[in-house]
Design goal:
This protein is mostly helical. It has a single domain (2-176, 195-414), classed as Growth Hormone, Chain: A (Up-down Bundle). The chain is built from 16 helices and no strands. It has helices at 2-27, 34-62, 64-68, 70-83, 88-116, 121-153, 156-173, 181-186, 192-199, 202-229, 247-269, 277-299, 307-323, 326-338, 345-391, 394-406. The longest helix has 47 residues, at 345-391. It is globular.
Length: 428
């Protein structure tokens, strides 16, 4: 598990590094609009959306450990090509390769985690939080380092990233196959049929819009933030956050955001036995709302007493900390569902990438148009709308979660795992 989480961190570091450096590069090219940046971001997640189900099925049939190795290989090829081209068509192709890297690694890693944590809610909570932590801290670290690295090395920084992908490959090479995987590989697999079966259930139809909307609200910022903060925009002189920042300032902010989000992941990941998954998601959405409100205050704090932006920054930090809990909670719900299909965990956990990719595509596209229309204010308003959408199916999902807990197919907060038998329900 330690090797898997370490490999996840380095792999996501490379992904974040590439995406952010590409944003910094595009910011230097005249005529590139936020919409173009959004399309590049959406292309990456479109590849993840299309390819994740395929690699999820492969991981069940070939072994989670083996399919993990595909991710770093795809990523290394992508960044090497990026270093030697400025052609938009080829750069779009590298976005597909980067998407394939994530599509191969995430379902196989999550299938591994679901298998190792079967029947243990406490361990599942910690593993889910640490996976999300390794993922988001890796992406955040990549975002933090990217502006400085690109400023120093230019396109050669992409070649350095290929070396980091090689490190991820070596880490995943050391992963041991989990207990029970040998028997699972020999068992019959439904493959894509599991997607059809699971997609017919109300659990997924209720989780999907909530998780997609939350991912869209986060993906909106991943796709646009570096581009927007890297240069001043005279079209919005009243917005404090659109006056342009130095690379070190952007990097410092990314580090602080990553630390706050990571602390939230650890805290909420350790609450799986005490809180229902949907309660954690609800708290996370409200935290995101507080973050948006504070962001608007900060963006228009020019000329106000220093106490105003400082107070808003404190609220934003707390909101980000609470928002972090939504991500491991949603992952835990999906892992609980996988208990119904122990031989097809990779296929089921591939839905994580599908929901994430759809959300990120929506967020990237909406973010591009929102930033074009109203800059950072537009991005904040779009985030608020997406979080409001996430609330709509949550009440029904809570009721459905109760049924899911009692029908013997999973647990809402206890320590039973489908085929293990027995259930313990968590309290709010």
């Amino acid at each position: 598990m330690r090797a898997v989480l370490a490999g996840t961190f380095t792999l996501r570091f490379s992904t974040g590094l590439t995406g952010a450096m590409l944003g910094a590069y595009l910011a230097t090219i005249a005529g590139v609009s936020p919409i173009v940046v959004g399309i590049f971001g959406a292309t990456f997640y479109l590849a993840e959306l299309v390819l994740s189900p395929i690699f999820g099925v492969l991981s069940d049939r070939q072994g989670h450990h083996k399919v993990m190795l595909y991710g770093p290989a795809f990523g290394a090829v992508a960044v090497i090509i990026t270093a030697f081209t400025t052609n938009f068509v080829l750069l779009g192709g590298t976005r597909w390769l980067e998407g394939a890297s994530t599509a191969a690694s995430v379902p196989s890693i999550l299938g591994f985690i679901a298998m190792v944590t079967a029947g243990n809610a406490e361990l599942r909570g910690k593993a889910s939080a640490r996976f999300e932590g390794a993922t988001l801290l890796g992406l955040g670290a990549g975002f933090a380092v990217a502006p400085i690295l690109f400023a120093v090395f230019g396109a050669n920084a992409f070649l350095l990233n290929a070396v980091i992908y090689g490190v991820s490959f070596l880490i995943f090479w050391t992963v041991k196959d989990p207990a029970g995987e040998a028997a699972s590989l020999k068992a019959p697999h439904a493959g894509f049929g599991r997607y059809v079966e699971l997609l017919r259930t109300s659990h997924v139809w209720l989780l999907a819009p909530t998780w997609i909307a939350v991912n869209a609200s986060i993906g909106l910022w991943f796709s646009q933030s570096i581009f927007q903060f890297a240069k001043a925009n005279p079209d919005f002189p009243d917005q404090l956050l659109m006056r342009g920042f130095q690379p070190w300032q952007i990097s410092l902010a990314a580090v602080i955001i990553g630390l706050l989000f990571g602390a939230g992941l650890i805290y909420w990941g350790n609450r799986f036995k005490d809180l229902r998954r949907t309660t954690m998601i609800l708290y996370g959405i409200f935290g995101g709302g507080a973050l948006v409100a504070a962001g608007i205050v900060i963006n228009h704090a020019s000329g106000t007493p220093l106490l105003v932006p400082l107070a808003a920054a404190t609220v934003a930090a707390f909101g980000l900390f609470v928002l972090a809990g939504a991500t491991p909670a949603a992952l835990g719900l999906l892992a609980d569902m996988s208990e119904r299909f122990p031989n097809d965990r990779g296929a089921i956990m591939g839905l994580y990438s599908v929901f994430l990719a759809i959300g990120q595509i929506i967020g990237a596209v909406i973010g591009g148009f929102a930033a074009e229309a109203r800059g950072i204010d537009g991005m904040l308003i779009a985030t608020a709308v997406l979080l409001a959408v996430a609330l709509i199916p949550l009440a029904q999902l809570r009721r459905d979660e109760d049924a899911f807990d009692h029908d013997g197919t999973g647990d809402a907060g206890g320590d039973q795992g489908g085929h293990q038998g027995g259930a313990t329900t968590a309290r709010d």
